[in-house]
């Protein structure tokens, strides 16, 4: 059997194994500390904390993605305590694990150990490190990538029941991290795998795939039942509503070839080059269209295309440059398996090009922290976030959304924390500072993970699920006996994230130096 098991792992070069784990873990740990973009940086912080306090996604706060990521974060908090290091240990660990799988995949391609090490270190530099903190798109992508590695490495053994279960489970975890890009990847790879299985007359494997999917689904419903999360509400929040968002994005998408090529030229060029090598092999009949080698390439191509589709649809920063080292590794395979006269030097040249490309994106995304909108910010002006609370020790605070001295923002947060603690009423806080629940003495009852009034965070007025969310919000306010809803004045979150769901006579606005405060009179 040619699937991942203990003996295979023990056969890895231990020295390289240690280097990759330490480098991947520490590079993410190091760069994660620079700056904050609150809406993304703390997306799973309070939600992980709330799960430990038996407040669950779907039931206690509205979600559109990241169901399983919150639970994984709660596990890291359970082990290491509620603190910043436990938060970034999560993403750093994922960076290390996906890098080890990538190294093993390169070895499977029969790339030399030294070249595999170089490709892997380039990969880990551009993988989770560009975000640093847990991020749903990256979790979904890397769960899917591990499953893709397993499929390619074991393409001739896909009738193995245990292997199939692991692959299906990984894609299931990917989907529970974020629906897309997982759906795009599953559809594209699934189409290719079905053709492969039909060609190999192996329809029995399709039956096992369906059975394993049903098993995962049943087990998940059991978990929802145990947590008292209504599966209909899960379907509404996690499937129905996000589909309506995706449909809208398809309608307004506007992409030019020039823009697409400029952004992803270092992905397109290696794909074209690899395709040329495959074409030459097909022409010379060194391989055939239905060979394992060809299907392996098509599966990697499908994975890359799924991410490209997702990236053109999303509003997030580009995060898929980690594909470059993988594609360059495939080029290295083609060069070394070719009959080119100077293939040794061409291999070295391709590695040098990869290192330079990696350095380019490292400077842009890791050093400048572009992913979190910090490229134009002087990171040297950041100050220790432990002055807000000791649990944030290790984070250097500077927020690109706050125009002014970061010391001033920290003072505002500390004053606000005191005011929230001193309130003798049950309150609901609407904020991007999704760590405040963990450092205050009272529950803040946030109804959402994020608060953008663009139809992404929650259904807005014209969305067909508007009244579903209105009822959800009203129930949260009623169940928790909420008397006042707080907005930070300086955050400039649109007050419509609350007022759009209730009649004007149902609330009264007052304000102080720090907050807009809505006193609730009714829930109509």
Largest sheet: 4 strands, mixed
Radius of gyration, CA atoms, in whole angstroms: 24 Å
Low-confidence stretches: none
- Structural class label: mainly alpha
How far is the N terminus from the C terminus?
Answer: 63 Å
Helical segment count: 20
Number-wise, the strands total: 6
Helix content: 55-70%
Total domains: 2
Order of helices and strands: HHHHHHHHHHHHHHHHEEHEHHEHEE
Explain how this protein is built.
The chain has 20 helices and six strands. It has 524 residues and is mainly α. The protein has two domains: 6-372, no CATH class; 405-520, no CATH class. It has a four-stranded mixed beta sheet with strand order 3-4-6-5. The chain starts with 5 loop residues before the first helix and ends with a strand.
